[in-house]
Structures are given as structure tokens and as C-alpha cells.
Amino acid sequence: QVQLVESGGGLVQPGGSLRLSCAASGMSFRFRAMGWYRRAPGQQRELVADITTGGSPKYADSVKGRFTISRDNAKNTMYLQMSSLKPEDTAVYYCNTNPYTSYYWGQGTQVTVSS
Length: 115
Hints:
By secondary structure, the chain is mainly β. Helices cover 0% and strands 48% of the residues. It is built from no helices and ten strands. The chain has strands at 3-7, 10-12, 18-25, 34-39, 46-51, 57-59, 67-72, 77-82, 91-97, 109-113. The strands form two sheets. A six-stranded mixed beta sheet has the order 2-10-9-4-5-6, with no helix packed on it. It is globular.
């Protein structure tokens, strides 16, 4: 049974940083392209960053230069380092494969950027 567990969210002031983690189990993590998604209040879920099996990253324009995605295949874990956070980054952040697998969605982790 595949399980993706996100952690590391919280309340941070504008300009601050957070590091999200995604722990994967029950899947061949190293052979799957992965992504970080987010859903802001009243909006659809969007892909903000993805990473290939080889570690090549890609970013949405809205986070380019501020977010860094990485993965540790030995730990079956993916990360999202978020810097220079803005109020518009407020959302629930999820990890999933890329493209996503509908039944892999976890609970997500809430990120709130506010002063």
C-alpha cells in the first residue's frame, strides 16, 4: 500500500523559509518522477515543482528562484526548500508522483505565510 506523508508546514512570516518533507513507502520511489503540488483556498490544486528520477528539477514560474526541490532515493524522501515566502504561497502542500496518481494523495501539510 502506497503511503505519502508530508510534513514541515507551519506559520511563517513573509520573507521566511520552510522545508517540507515527503516520506514515501510502499512504492519503488527511485523509479518514479515526483512532484510537489499545492491547493490554495478557493483554487484548484497546482503543480509547483517536479523532479525526475535522475534529479532534474522543474518549477512553476510563480516559485522559480525561491523554491528548491530535491530527493534522497536512499531515504525514499523528497524535499521542498521554500524561501522568500509570500502570502500567496499560503496553501496545503501535497506530494505525489508526476503526473499524479489519484489514489496516492495524502493529507498534505499546511503552509501559512502571514505577518
